[in-house]
Amino acid sequence: MYTSAEYIRPWQVNGKYSEAVANYLGMESSVRLGNHQIDGLLDIFINTVFVQIARIRNKFLFYKFPVDKMLYKSFVANFYRKKALQEKDAAEQKQAGVIR
Q1: Could you say which of 40, 43, 62, 98 has the lowest number of CB atoms within 10 Å?
Q2: At what angle do helices 67-99 and 41-60 cross, to 10 degrees?
Q3: Would the CA dihedral through 41, 47, 52, 55 be positive or negative?
Q4: What is the predicted pLDDT for the residue at 31?
């Protein structure tokens, strides 16, 4: 039995497999990060590569050696970290412009 959560549930017969399936289904469907959310062409390309890898893994049900999963999680975390910094800088600039 699969779950949409990317962590192992105690009732699962093969929790690691279910966690991998949930991860790659989420990656393929762009639940966490879709190209429509990304501005930079390089980041769109990288995200597209990860989506295609997930699509292939899901098609063949091959979830061993998940190096790409770790890289994708790092890519997504860095993307949202950069986005937060950009939004913070924009808010500070707006506030500075209003104060002057």
Answers
A1: 98
A2: 150
A3: negative
A4: 85
**Domain spans of the chain, in order of start:** 15-99
How confident is the model over 26-48, as pLDDT tens digits?
899 988 899 999 999 999 999 99
- CB burial readout 32-66, b (16+ within 10 A) else e: bbeeeebeeeebeebbeebbebbeebbeeeebeeb
Q: How many CB atoms lie within 10 A of CB 83?
A: 13
**How many residues does the structure list for the chain?**
100
Pick from 36, 1, 33: nearest CA to 19: 1
Residue type, 67: V
DSSP secondary structure code for residue 5 in this structure: S
